[in-house]
C-alpha cells in the first residue's frame, strides 16, 4: 500500500469540523479526505462526559484506520481533543495526529488592549487541558471566558433548514447575542475586548452574526488555518504528502460520513463546501 496516497481522516461530533476541512482543502489541495461527523451523538460539548467522548474518539479512530486506511487523523473538535487526544496518541503511536485547542496564543500576540474573549462549549472550557493553557499565559492578557450552552447544538440543527431570511429571528442569532452581551464591552479602547477566540468549530458558521455583534474592529480568531498548516508540517516530516495528481486519480477525493441523519450533512456539504449529495453517506459505529 502506498501510504502517501491514502486519505486524511477528519472527525468532529457533528458538522462543525467542516470549517476545518475547508482550511485543510485550501492548504492541501492534492490530498484525499474522509470526514466523519458523529452527529448521532452530537454535540459532545454541551452534555457528554469525558468517558463517553473518549470512547467515541477511540471507536471512530479505529473505524477510520480499519475501513478507510487513513494516513493521518485531524480531530476537528475542541471537546474531543481536550478529553481524548492524549489517550489516542498513546494507543495509536504510529498515526500522525492533529488536535484542536482554542487559539489563545495567537490572540495574545494580536491583542492591543490585552483583554481577550473566549467562547466555547462548557466541556472544552472546563477541561484540564484548557485550564493548563490559560495558566501558561498568566499575566500576558486578561481572558473573559464564556461557555455557550446550546449554541453548537442550535448550529447543528439549523443546517437542515433553509437559510433564514431574517437572521435576527433565528435561535442561533439569539444565543450569540445573549453570550456576547454577557461578556462585556467589545472594542479597541483600553479595557475593552478587542479579540474574540472561537473555541468551537461550529462557531465559524455563525461568524457573520458574531461580527455584527462585536463590531468591525474586533479580531475573530479560529483554528482551521493553523491546524491545516500543522497537518502539512506533520505529513511533510513523515514523507506522507500526496503526489500532486493523487486526488485527481479518483472520482471522489472527499468522502463525508455521518452517524446521524444524512440530509443535514448533505445540506451542510452543499452550503459550505459546494459538494454534491452523493459525496455523503451514513455509517454505524458502535
UniProtKB/TrEMBL annotation:
EC identifiers of the protein: 5.1.1.3
Record-linked InterPro entries: Asp/Glu/hydantoin_racemase (IPR015942), Asp/Glu_race (IPR001920), Asp/Glu_racemase_AS_1 (IPR018187), Glu_race (IPR004391)
Enzyme class: isomerase
GO molecular function: glutamate racemase activity
Keyword terms of this UniProt record: Cell shape, Cell wall biogenesis/degradation, Isomerase, Peptidoglycan synthesis
Catalytic activity: L-glutamate = D-glutamate
Protein family membership: Belongs to the aspartate/glutamate racemases family.
NCBIfam families: glut_race
Functional description taken from the UniProt entry: Provides the (R)-glutamate required for cell wall biosynthesis.
Name of this protein: Glutamate racemase
Organism of origin: Acidovorax soli
Gene designation per UniProt: murI
Amino acid at each position: 500500500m502506498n501510504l502517501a496516497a491514502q486519505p486524511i481522516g477528519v472527525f468532529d461530533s457533528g458538522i462543525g469540523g467542516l470549517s476545518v476541512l475547508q482550511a485543510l482543502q485550501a492548504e492541501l489541495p492534492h490530498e484525499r479526505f474522509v470526514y466523519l461527523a458523529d452527529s448521532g451523538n452530537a454535540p459532545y460539548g454541551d452534555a457528554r462526559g469525558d468517558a463517553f467522548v473518549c470512547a467515541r474518539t477511540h471507536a471512530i479512530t479505529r473505524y477510520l484506520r480499519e475501513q478507510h486506511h487513513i494516513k493521518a487523523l485531524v480531530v476537528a473538535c475542541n471537546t474531543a481533543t481536550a478529553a481524548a487526544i492524549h489517550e489516542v496518541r498513546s494507543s495509536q503511536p504510529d498515526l500522525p495526529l492533529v488536535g484542536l485547542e482554542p487559539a489563545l496564543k495567537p490572540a495574545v500576540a494580536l491583542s492591543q488592549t490585552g483583554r481577550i474573549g473566549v467562547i466555547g462549549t462548557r466541556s472544552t472550557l472546563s477541561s484540564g487541558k484548557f485550564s493548563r493553557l490559560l495558566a501558561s499565559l498568566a499575566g500576558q492578557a486578561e481572558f473573559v471566558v464564556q461557555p455557550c450552552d446550546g449554541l453548537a447544538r442550535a448550529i447543528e440543527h439549523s443546517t437542515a433548514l433553509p437559510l433564514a431570511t431574517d437572521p435576527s429571528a433565528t435561535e442561533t442569532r439569539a444565543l450569540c447575542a445573549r453570550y456576547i452581551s454577557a461578556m462585556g464591552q467589545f472594542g479597541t479602547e483600553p479595557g475593552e475586548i478587542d479579540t474574540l477566540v472561537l473555541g468551537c468549530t461550529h462557531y465559524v458558521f455563525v461568524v457573520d452574526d458574531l461580527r455584527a455583534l462585536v463590531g468591525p474592529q474586533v479580531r475573530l480568531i479560529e483554528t482551521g488555518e493553523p491546524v491545516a498548516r500543522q497537518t502539512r508540517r506533520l505529513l511533510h516530516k513523515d514523507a506522507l504528502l500526496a503526489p500532486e495528481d493523487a486526488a485527481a486519480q479518483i472520482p471522489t477525493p472527499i468522502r463525508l460520513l455521518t452517524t446521524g441523519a444524512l440530509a443535514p450533512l448533505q445540506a451542510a456539504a452543499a452550503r459550505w463546501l459546494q459538494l454534491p449529495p452523493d459525496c455523503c453517506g451514513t455509517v454505524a459505529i458502535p
